[in-house]
UniProtKB/TrEMBL annotation:
Topology term for the membrane: Single-pass membrane protein
Enzyme Commission identifier(s): 3.4.16.4
Any one Gene Ontology molecular-function term assigned to this protein's record: penicillin binding
Source taxon at top rank: Bacteria
Pathway: Cell wall biogenesis; peptidoglycan biosynthesis
Penicillin-binding protein transpeptidase domain: residues covered: 269-604
UniProt keyword annotations, A-Z: Carboxypeptidase, Cell inner membrane, Cell membrane, Cell shape, Cell wall biogenesis/degradation, Hydrolase, Membrane, Peptidoglycan synthesis, Protease, Transmembrane, Transmembrane helix
Catalytic activity, reaction form: Preferential cleavage: (Ac)2-L-Lys-D-Ala-|-D-Ala. Also transpeptidation of peptidyl-alanyl moieties that are N-acyl substituents of D-alanine
GO biological process: cell wall organization; peptidoglycan biosynthetic process; proteolysis; regulation of cell shape
Protein name: Peptidoglycan D,D-transpeptidase MrdA
Organism of origin: Chromohalobacter japonicus
The protein's role, per its UniProt record: Catalyzes cross-linking of the peptidoglycan cell wall.
GO cellular component: plasma membrane
Family, similarity comment: Belongs to the transpeptidase family. MrdA subfamily.
Amino acid sequence: MRKRRDPIKDTAREVRVFRARSLLAALLVLLMAGGLGARLFYLQVVEHDVFTTRSEKNRVRVEPLPPTRGLIYDRQGQLVAENRPTYNLTIVRERVRDIDATLDRLVDILGLDETQVEAFRKRSRQRQRPYQPALLMSDLNERQIARLAVNRYRLPGVEVEAQWLRHYPSPKIMSHVLGYVGRINEQELASLDSGNYAGTHYIGKTGIEKQYEEALHGKAGLRKVETNARGRVLRELERTPPEPGKDLTLTIDTRLQQMAYDLLDGRRGSIVAIQPQTGDILAMVSAPGFDSNEFVTGISYKDYQSLQKDLDLPLFNRAVRGHYPIGSTIKPFEALAALQNGVVTPQEVIYDPGYYKLPNDSRHYRNWLRWGHGRVDLERALAVSNNTYFYTMAHRLGIDALSSFMYKFGFGEVTSLDVQGASSGTVPSREWKREKYGQAWYPGETLSAGIGQGYWMVTPLQLATAEATLANRGEWVRPHLAKRVGETSVEPPFKNTKSDVKLDKDVWWDDVFSGMEKVVSGREGTARHIGKGLKYEMAGKSGTAQVFSLGQNQKYDADELKERLRDHALFTAFAPVDDPQIAIAVIVENAGGGSSHAAGLARALADEWLLPDDENTHQAEELIEEDVEVEGT
């Protein structure tokens, strides 16, 4: 039987298969087209507003415009804090895909050393508001800017921006008055107004820069710009200009400030000068100083450690935070307290055998002149700085009456208007000692307080403030550093809540001033050497502040002591007596007698302020002499 052969080609079957496949493909295409149409409808109709906004944000960017920081001038219009143009390196982390790789690239491009790299990476990790540029590096040089420009295509999110950078023309002499600005840290960032400080990398850290930060900073602006896909700005669409910070005019006289710093001649100490009628702080020096410009762009760890470990403490503001025993400069104030409380009269004479003894106490509280001054009244006691006289006054007054009177002159309080970081010092009393040490007050401690030793602690600013109040015959004028903020003058007399110091008899001011004049111009005055050739009347008082206490029969010998254990030299003064134009407080650490090593500096500074150049011909060195005796210890 013969087999049936299959046809070579089944046309009908192929047609059926083709039609089935075509139908399936058509259905699949229609299904996909429907899905695509639905997605397009969702994106373009349902989510139209959302994606329009996102698209606009990709094209339009809002950028902050930081304000220009206000300038600072001295009272004569000399610029003491300026802004200079600079270029900063910033990064917006949200626009960077691989932050570590980008930083490695930047380190290689800029050629940073290991110390710089550590600080560089630390800044890159600092917390920042979203889409705000973080400052990586300040004050780029031309070579660095050129290398960054060539490699810009490899550095998305990294920008070189032009900004003004703070600069101090006289950094050391003004370092403690002005303070400095520095990079905003995370703690400051959390507390600042995010809108007003957008785009700002620096803030006042200390001194006047911190005290008047709000006025100096100004108000930030903004601009809307159109960018391309790479984020480069194509054109500016809208701008709200920033409001620049207000310029600040200080009461400081740069010439006097420079002279005060030079007078200290590398020694540790402070000089403060105040204009009594207005409270203007004419000079406020703390030595040694430091280069405040190093802190603006970020001081290196090595340099900062060097400053911190320096035994002379250049970062410490002695003028407002240094605590020193008041020494014999307390005696004019104590004399007024004794007169006001009726425990002495100007004419009463006390005999000084060279020591004072409390009733029923064998201890000798010695005068600085060991054989004594003999018969002394108030005027002579001030002129020769007689300890025995003031031991007697202190014992009669008692510590509480003395302390209460000293508060009237601003001791134990912060009375300045705008001095950042000022300390209150210490005015001892029975209650103070009981609260601090849980101990009773002893009569011998009253005697020590009577010559400004023991628990007394004052700052140079407080001492100058008290001297200005004394020069004003008790009228209170608050010391201050700002003379004008912007176009607004800060008018005197800057009266605060303290009452003027009132005495029962106005003539008592003259009695005390007469004794202070004799300090400088009298035959026995402790600082009579600075009265030679004086062309105006000066009232002064020398003082010596003990760094440690002497035993009952010990005699002070500076040559046998280590330098930092020697007494501090103090001198306070005002001039002219009839119309005071300047009140001065000088403290030179571990220098010895105030009459020998501080009085000449006060005289030189007063001459500089009061005399025309052709009459001010002496050298400060001529007014410094070697110790013969140490008064007040």
